[in-house]
Design a protein that fits this description.
The complex is a heterodimer of chains A (307) and B (299). Chain A has 307 residues and is of the alpha/beta class. In chain A, 30% of the residues lie in helices and 19% in strands. The two termini of chain A are 30 Å apart. Chain B has 299 residues and is an alpha/beta fold. The chains are: A alpha/beta (307), B alpha/beta (299).
């Protein structure tokens, strides 16, 4: 019998646990036609803010590193109005769950975005708390448990959609931040976002990125992300969405076994537009090979070392 | 004259599935050329059929069979302009080998397969009523010129090619220097263009000088300039052509997705309201010179 791949994130019931991570897939229209993306569990769109943002200066916004990619795009986005008018209808045409990722300078801005998206057709909201908290001197909301909780609470009050808090790994205790988000009403947490990173050109002694610093993604971060997913899954009851350097099914299985209920593919999509489909096929094959009836049986099934 | 494939209007109308393809194609030829250049001939009928001058393909540098294996180097695809379309089925890529991605590609052999996505981006567009085209290209910027010259010839447009490089070895095409006569580029002359070549080291002029020297002869309403090369060259051309010649430029920038999603490869655009960026991969790589904020474009 074919294994049951369905996964539930709050009220969002996905046909399988493979998602595409925010920022990678743009608003969806850019990848149209390259693969049947409607077959995946959910597609998380690029973060949108109340008003358009130009983002960081160019040249360069990204740098390739060993098994990785450092980016400093700076949340360039079209703004909520154009998102709702021009972008979302195209994304919804994929025929699978669409998750909107939102950010703001203040908790209020997050809430305003959430309210505007409440009945727009998206299946869930991902709250990108890795962006700078303007009232707190620009430090990311996500590095502080209380600030994270405040944002989630503000969004909770503004929408009945499932809320996914997207956690940054750049903290001492990510499980504490996850627990604070859960207490404030998050239906799920997703991690990890990118790891703070920097690339320097020794010839010029200048940072390669125009913004100076950025965030590292790609296979290089996978073991560090798996570690954090394990920590968080042990602390919260809500579902965890695991991501960070997933390239193939084996990578995704590590996250599931560590306690993630679903996974998201990011950087690998730029190499392989069908990376998500490849991961999904491999997960299905693994479950069949091991005679596991439902993917949820695998979640958090980590055995002790040694053995 | 028809707009090239991949024009923004076409994309807004749904980015039809048929506008670009991901194909696993066969490498027909993989040839080292002088000056650390390399030519790949690929069997890619879907892309060959749609390719327009100025468009590019996004190339996975590793063997397609290894896509499931996370790579340590060259995690991203590499963009290369389409140099020529040969027959109905083949495209040619011409590159200067530099960096890890180029080295991996140059090591690939005929008979192996390659994973490419294309054709991508907005190519060159000929305006209604254009009778003369001036193509200005510098160094490896000459790579996409053959397809452009063929296309202009098909449309019956008189074409002048002004080519330049720091020295002869920086050109992906053979330079012949008959004693006492100007240098020639036979492969490009065969495509019907009137070719003038000058290298900075021998003739002591920049390619933009070549246009400036003939400006009074060439600056007419029915003339269009198409330019590909280093940003400093394009910047200078934009200044020379402003107000007297229609200019389209092809820009390069570091890319990640190649599809307009990641916003890595942006360039500053002229805008009435503050800072605005356009993507080289999707809004370009070809831009009308008036679209670009040349003051803010870094070189």
């Amino acid at each position: 019998m074919a294994p049951d791949l369905t996964v539930r994130i709050g009220a969002m019931e996905m046909k399988n646990p493979v998602m595409l991570a925010s920022g990678i897939f743009g608003y969806g229209d850019e990848f149209m036609g390259l693969a049947p993306y409607g077959e995946l569990g959910a597609l998380v769109l690029k973060t949108v803010t109340l008003f358009p943002r130009a983002g960081n200066p160019p040249a360069s916004r990204t740098a390739e590193t060993p098994a990785g990619l450092v980016n400093a795009i700076g949340l360039e986005n079209v703004g909520l109005e154009a998102f709702l008018r021009d972008k979302l209808p195209v994304a919804l045409s994929y025929g699978t769950h669409i998750v909107a990722s939102i950010a703001g300078d203040t908790a209020q801005e997050f809430a305003d975005c959430a309210r505007a998206l409440d009945r727009a057709g998206v299946s869930a909201l991902e709250v990108n708390i890795s962006c700078p908290n303007v009232k707190q001197g620009g430090m990311a909301f996500g590095v502080d448990a209380q600030a994270s909780a405040d944002v989630v609470a503000a969004v909770r009050a503004a929408t009945s959609l499932p809320i996914i808090a997207k956690l940054t790994p750049n903290v001492t205790d990510v499980a504490a931040v996850a627990a604070a988000c859960e207490r404030s009403g998050a239906d799920a947490v997703s991690l990890t976002n990118t790891f703070s990173a920097m690339v320097i050109d020794p010839e010029t002694r200048r940072p390669l990125l125009a913004a100076g610093t950025g965030g590292l993604s790609g296979p290089a971060i996978r073991p560090a992300a798996v570690y954090r997913v394990r920590e968080v899954a042990a602390r919260v009851r809500v579902p965890v969405i695991g991501m960070g350097g997933i390239w193939n099914a084996s990578d995704a299985l590590e996250f599931l076994i560590a306690g993630a209920s679903a996974v998201a593919v990011g950087t690998a999509l730029y190499a392989d537009p069908e990376a998500g489909h490849r991961v999904l096929r491999g997960i299905r094959g693994y479950l069949e090979r091991h005679g596991i009836a439902t993917v949820s049986d695998l979640v958090g099934s980590l055995r002790s070392a040694g053995g | 004259m028809s707009e090239p494939a991949g024009a923004p209007e076409a994309e807004a109308a749904g980015m039809s599935a048929a506008s670009r393809f991901r194909v696993i194609c066969e490498i027909i030829e993989s040839a080292h050329l002088p000056g650390n250049h390399h030519r790949l001939v690929l069997e890619a009928p879907e892309i060959a059929r749609l390719a327009r001058p100025g468009q590019f393909v996004h190339v996975w540098c590793h063997p397609p069979e290894q896509i499931d294996r996370p790579p340590c180097a060259a995690v991203l695809r590499r963009p290369y302009s389409i140099s020529r379309v040969w027959g109905p089925n083949r495209i040619v890529i011409l590159m200067r080998v530099r960096g890890v991605g180029g080295s991996l590609l140059a090591a690939r052999r005929a008979g192996e397969r390659l994973d490419i996505i294309g054709p991508l981006g907005r190519g060159f567009a000929v305006a209604e009523g254009t009778r003369t085209a001036v193509v200005v290209a510098g160094g490896i910027g000459l790579a996409p010129v053959p397809l452009l010259l063929e296309w202009l010839a098909v449309h019956g447009i008189r074409t002048i090619l002004l080519a330049g490089a720091a020295d002869d070895s920086k050109l992906p095409f053979l330079v012949e220097r008959p004693p006492g006569r100007p240098a020639t580029l036979p492969e490009l002359e065969e495509l019907g263009a009137e070719v003038t070549f000058a290298s900075e080291s021998v003739e002591g002029v920049l390619v933009s000088d070549l246009l400036e020297m003939r400006l009074s002869e060439l600056a007419h309403a029915h003339t269009q300039v198409f330019a590909i090369g280093p940003r400093a060259m394009l910047k200078r051309l934009a200044a020379i052509c402003e107000g007297c010649l229609e200019l389209q430029v092809s820009l390069e920038e570091r890319m990640a997705c190649g599809l307009g999603a990641c916003r890595s490869c942006v360039v500053p655009a002229r805008s009435a309201e503050g800072t605005a960026y356009k993507t080289v991969c999707r809004d370009g790589p070809v831009f009308d010179a008036r679209e670009i904020d040349w003051e803010r474009l870094t070189t």
